Amino acid sequence: MHLIACAVIVVPYVINLRDIIFSSWVQLxxxxxxxxxxxxxxxxxVGAVRRxxxxxxxxxxxxxxxxxxxxxxxxxxGYENVSNVAEEFKNPKRDFxxxxxxxxx
Length: 105
What we know:
By secondary structure, the protein is mainly alpha-helical. The chain folds into two domains: 1-49; 59-105. The protein has helices at residues 2-18, 20-45, 63-85, 92-103. Helix 1 packs across helix 2 and helix 3 (63-85) packs antiparallel against helix 4 (92-103). The model has no long low-confidence stretch (mean pLDDT 86).
């Protein structure tokens, strides 16, 4: 277990230490591999999908889906932007934690 933890720390460090171009190619390769695995998973399992499993599909229409998507988007955006304005806090030690909690509500 310790070897895995060390690898999780050391491998990205070594990749980033080499240079930014190499790091970007490694990142691109990882994204392509994840995309290929996703396409393969869908392709191999599309035959197992049954129409009956989706019988009450969107019983309340698309509005609840759009509302949930908007809430998730704005919640993440608020949480992510806390660090961008942290330097403007009068008391960062207190206000940063407050802003993180309030951004999730």
